[in-house]
Design goal:
The chain contains 15 helices and 13 strands. The chain is an alpha+beta fold. The protein has four domains: 183 residues, no CATH class; 104 residues, PAS domain (Beta-Lactamase, 2-Layer Sandwich), CATH 3.30.450; 74 residues; 150 residues, Heat Shock Protein 90 (2-Layer Sandwich). A hairpin with a 4-residue loop joins strand 1 and strand 2. It starts with a helix and ends in a 13-residue tail after the last strand.
Length: 568
């Protein structure tokens, strides 16, 4: 069928080229000669042999001209003369076989169509003119009929129909040519766009392949779509060829404390569930010198409909930074530990000296000495508190924070904290209120949770202006009440989003805190985060400049084997 269409297309649309012209002409000769010869054989009394011979002779002469044309193509003049000769041959053969051969005139449409296709408006004009001269006008003189309006109309209807058909064909051809030009331009534009896309894709893949961070892109079903060289190197550590279990469950992936990460809690699995996180650290590879510390960040890509379209993870090898930070933490822990003994001695001897001074007679020297001892005690206690916080933070950072877990009432802990800080609130003329909407017990270390409460409520009182308000509330965590959430809200100076994102970093203090007269080392919130996460909970902050801040943390009310770690 395709070959037939190609053949017909060649007949209709190729008016140049010897091969196509010869095919057209021979086909037309067969179509015209067949009915003429049949009429000469079966209707000899109404047919003129001489006229038929003349008509077919004109047709054969035109065919011979095409046969003798150069191989390079039919000359331009023959492109005109051959169709004209075909129209003339149709007219002569019509009259030679009239009346039975009257319909032969319709075959002149074929060469007329060649002229229209090849030369458009000029070809249509010549075709109509030759039909009029070869068929219509001779009809007035050769055919013996009464001349009237009906007869004249019948003779003229064919050239009029040919003219209308020619205009229609020209319109179709122009439309096809316009569409062809547009299609070619579109195809050219698409090819250029495709070439540009391929070039951009090569550049991006080249950049991606040479990045010193690992990149993993997954589709919505969790299938790997794209990885780069650095990621493949990390994966080879997680699943070496010597590993007996090459499945996901057998990958050598560990928390920073050395315990294995369950498959459902690994970064790729979490990202495939739509989670987003930053700088999550874990160990990759078998324990030993080749094991690396990897920091991963995950982000989701959302489609316009709101569905997750893909997820990508960025892996960074932070082994050197981790080891350096660990060394710094160990130095701080060692120094802090060494400072506790002399600080304890200072506080102890200060107490002893104060007791001894109280036994002396009252005098200006005794009063001055007691004031000086009071300053020594106060500063030694501050330094001791700082050392304890440093030690606790370092224990949490290296996963050594131990908890004494037992069922405790969060309501009681919060109530005790608020009551203990009411004098400080009254001194600063700040309204401190408590709202309780949940009285569930949780499995926790009551001393550590109290430390978190003291840090959060104490900070709110420190940074809230005189006449301000601090509100502490306790309520169920989540829609199902699975756990408890504690919120501490104030109307103090607040902080920017950038400051809020760093407020749980050790030794970080927001700009408003640094500019205030309130002293602090920036360890309280970092330590609070470590304690809450060691309990398996979460802590967060929402704040805006000039609109205060709201800290909240959650604890589970189920007795479970929660992991005793704060960094993973």
């Amino acid at each position: 069928m395709t070959r037939f269409r190609t053949f017909v297309g060649a007949l209709l649309y190729h008016s140049s080229g010897k091969t196509f012209a010869l095919i057209q002409q021979l086909t037309f000769v067969a179509v015209l000669a067949t009915p003429v010869l049949m009429l000469l054989i079966f209707e000899p009394e109404t047919s003129s042999v001489l006229g038929a011979a003349l008509g077919l002779g004109v047709l054969f002469a035109a065919t011979l001209a095409v046969v003798l044309a150069p191989r390079s193509g039919v000359p331009r003049v023959l492109e005109w003369l051959v169709p004209v000769a075909g129209i003339v041959a149709c007219g002569i053969c019509r009259y030679a076989t009239y009346p039975e051969g009257a319909v032969i005139s319709t075959l002149s449409l074929v060469p007329s169509l060649w002229l229209v296709v090849g030369f458009r408006q000029r070809g249509a004009a010549v075709a109509v003119l030759m039909v009029v001269l070869s068929i219509s006008i001779p009809s007035f003189f050769v055919i013996e009929e009464t001349m009237n309006f009906s007869t004249v109309s019948r003779f003229l209807v064919f050239p009029v129909a040919l003219a209308l058909m020619s205009f229609a064909v020209i319109g179709i051809l122009q439309t096809l040519e316009a569409k062809t030009i547009h299609a070619r331009q579109s195809l050219l534009s698409e090819r250029r766009s495709l070439a540009q896309f391929e070039r951009t894709d090569r550049l991006l893949r080249g950049v991606l392949e040479n990045l010193n961070v690992g990149v993993l892109v997954m589709d919505a079903d969790g299938n790997d779509v794209m990885t780069n060289r650095a990621q493949r190197e990390i994966h080879s550590l997680a699943s070496p060829e010597t590993n007996p279990d090459r499945t996901e469950a057998g990958h050598l992936v560990f928390y920073t404390d050395g315990s294995s990460i369950p498959a459902a809690s690994r970064p790729a699995a979490r990202a495939n569930r739509g989670e987003e996180f930053d700088n999550l650290e874990f160990l990759v590879g078998a324990p030993g010198p080749t094991q690396r510390v990897i920091s991963v960040t995950a982000r989701a890509v959302w489609a316009e409909q709101g569905d997750r379209d893909a997820s990508f993870l960025i892996f960074r090898d932070v082994t050197e930074q981790h080891n350096l930070l660990r060394a710094q933490q160990e130095v701080i822990a060692a120094v802090s530990h060494e400072m506790r003994t002399p600080l304890t001695s200072i506080v102890g001897f200060t107490d002893f000296t104060e007791d001894a001074m109280l036994d002396l007679e009252d005098s200006p020297a005794r009063v001055a000495a007691l004031d000086q001892l009071s300053v020594i005690r106060r500063n030694a206690e501050k330094l001791s508190k700082l050392v304890e916080d440093l030690l606790l933070e370092q224990q949490a950072a290296v996963g050594r924070l131990t908890l004494d877990l037992e069922p405790v009432s969060v309501t009681r802990l919060v109530t005790d904290c608020v009551e203990g800080l009411q004098p400080l609130a009254a001194q600063r003329e700040i309204s401190l209120s408590l709202s309780i909407d949940h009285c569930a017990e949780v499995v926790a270390d009551s001393l550590r949770v109290s430390q978190v409460l003291d840090n959060l409520v104490g900070n709110a009182l420190k940074y809230t202006h005189t006449g301000g308000r601090v509100t502490v509330s306790v309520g169920p965590a989540g829609d199902g009440g699975d756990g408890v959430v504690v919120q501490v809200a104030d109307d103090g100076p607040g902080m920017t989003q950038k400051e809020a994102s760093q407020v749980f970093t050790p030794f970080y203090r927001a700009r408003s805190a640094r500019q205030s007269a309130t002293a602090g080392a920036g360890l309280g919130l970092a330590l609070s985060q470590s304690i809450v996460e060691a309990h398996g909970g979460t802590i967060s902050v929402r704040a805006s400049p000039g609109e205060g801040a709201r800290f909240s943390f959650t604890l589970s009310n189920h007795i479970t084997d929660r992991p005793q770690r704060t960094r993973a």
